[in-house]
Specification:
Layout lengths: L15 E3 L6 E2 L5 E7 L4 E9 L2 E4 L7 E5 L5 E6 L6 E7 L3 E4 L13 E7 L4 E7 L5 E7 L4 H9 L6
Antiparallel strand pairs: 1-3, 2-3, 3-4, 4-5, 6-7, 7-8, 8-9, 10-11, 11-12
Length: about 160
């Protein structure tokens, strides 16, 4: 990452042998969403950098990637489900951690769904895909609730603007 004074801040964490993967995003506060190659787990691990060199590993010892991050700190991406090993769409915030986004099917069929989340806008609409248990893939849009409590937790986790 380059600062406004043209200084380089490396985003490579100590355990990573490769810095940041493709399909990453950055928000107006300079938070970065992506993944790093964890040289201990030998896999790409989804990660968010919140302040220059402050790294959050989101899903230890499992693969995945965060694709985008909103200006108020909601990162979206894809990780393998710990039970089915299918890739599933997720969100992450510093306040609430990693959470799976809802699927299209209920009950036991939900465990057979896979998908991804690739983009988020300022009104918390998330664009992604769901592959249903039938094998049909649908483009989907999730809208996160904008409750005052959610907003307060998100804003409390953001760094002050400079």
């Amino acid at each position: 990452m380059f600062t406004p004074t043209k200084q380089l801040i490396s985003l490579i964490p100590a355990r990573a042998s490769t810095p940041n993967r493709v399909n990453t995003g950055v928000n107006d506060s300079g938070w970065v969403a992506g993944s790093v190659f964890d040289s201990i787990a030998l896999t790409w691990v989804p990660a968010v950098w919140t302040r220059g060199d402050s790294l959050h590993y989101l899903y230890r010892h499992q693969g995945g990637n965060m694709s985008a991050i909103s200006d108020d700190g909601i990162a979206v991406g894809t990780i393998p489900d710990s039970t089915s090993a299918l890739n599933v769409p997720v969100i992450w915030t510093a306040a609430t951690g990693l959470q799976r986004l809802p699927g299209l099917e209920g009950g036991a069929l939900l465990a057979k769904e896979s998908g991804s989340a690739g983009a988020i806008n300022k009104v918390h609409q998330i664009l992604g895909t769901i592959t249903m248990s039938t094998g049909k893939t649908r483009v989907v849009m999730w809208t996160l609730p904008d409750s005052p409590m959610l907003q307060a937790r998100l804003m409390a986790s953001m760094p002050p603007r400079q």
